[in-house]
Amino acid sequence: MMMKNVYLAFVVSLLSSASAFVAPLNQQSQVQNVALNMVDDRAPSKKQKVWKAMKRTTGALATVALSTAGLPPIANAAAEVVETAENTKKILAVGAGVATAVAASKLLGTKKQNFLEASPYWDQSTIPLNTFKNKAPFTGKVVSTKRIVGPKATGETCHIIIDSKGDYKYWEGQSMGVIPPGNREKDGKPHAVRLYSIASTRYGDDMTGKTSSLCVRRATYWCPELKADDPAKKGICSNFLCDTKPGDDIVMTGPAGKVMLMPEEDPSTNYIMVATGTGIAPYRGFVRRLFTEKSPAAEAYKGQAWLFLGVANSDALLYDDEWQEVKERFPDNFILDYALSREQENKKGGKMYIQDKMEEYADEIFNKLDAGAHIYFCGLKGMMPGIQDMLKGVAESKDLDYDEWLKGLKSNKQWHVEVY
What we know:
The chain is α/β, with parallel strands linked by helices. The protein has helices spanning 2-16, 25-38, 44-58, 60-69, 74-83, 85-96, 101-109, 236-242, 281-292, 296-300, 320-329, 354-359, 362-370, 383-397, 402-411; strands spanning 138-147, 157-163, 175-179, 194-197, 211-217, 222-223, 228-229, 249-256, 271-276, 305-311, 334-340, 374-379, 415-419. Helix 1 runs antiparallel to helix 7 (101-109), helix 3 crosses helix 4 (60-69) and helix 6 packs antiparallel against helix 7.
């Protein structure tokens, strides 16, 4: 949307001012530097491609448009600059032909995320499943690897975008297998596949359908004797992924799994999403599909999505900016609750864990489940005993047989668990 504003402002400037056809050389140089810095983590060839395309198509015109309209934040614009180069040229061509701003707006506004849908979009019979196997995996290339937690977070978590050129197709809620390079020390055999929940929709972060994203926490082991991390016991795959650089190969299998899929046939379905740490990954795909993208699912959705995320502290929150934006735009359809164990207290004065935060809304959760809501759990398997004990206690307070109640949810396919 921010890039669209830049382009539309450019067209308007063409139509409204003859001075738009001349730009001072120092201003052109300044904007060129900004444009190149926006894609600073890309390969130089891509930087040059972006700038040359803009310069070749528009010359000084692009300089004026960008400098007068303002540039979007680097974090949001870096990928978009590259991926919308062709659209940029189309828009500028419209402007050069003295078209109206309305025509340019229509050209930008018609782009939808509908080219990777089933027919109808909610039909799950054609879901891609185990397309790539251990003996015949797929090799993707890293686009970017970014640390996404603050300095006081307990550990390092990275968001990794992988380019598959559109050949690795998947749906929201599925997992990707990653085979780390090298061999095991104990027997010399290749490392086994590790599964990671995919943290993007089928259209990827860039919405082109050619990338996928992972949310990975670097696994380390603190040795009390060494009083330091023991490199011999670090997570092989998580450290490999968090250390990747743009252009690195990633050997992938899958996609795997059907348990975490969203039942989209009824657009009024309510979703309760419960995560600890990187268990947030599939829900990022859910929320983007339901609220961020221009997908058939988003256009039809009328229900409510409720996200619970448990982490240690505020610096460890994942994708908070995205959740806050959705919450602001869809206050009646998206609910967000955090459990910060080192910053909040539960009603008993102890640390606030995910089950404690859920218990605060126990009546609402049970009412929603009784009305057909689907509940999802993703994260470390250690989260489940505390959650189930809490749910059992609430059920008993309502004179419900917990085992029968849970059996009913599972029978109706309302209960979804993927823990590790």
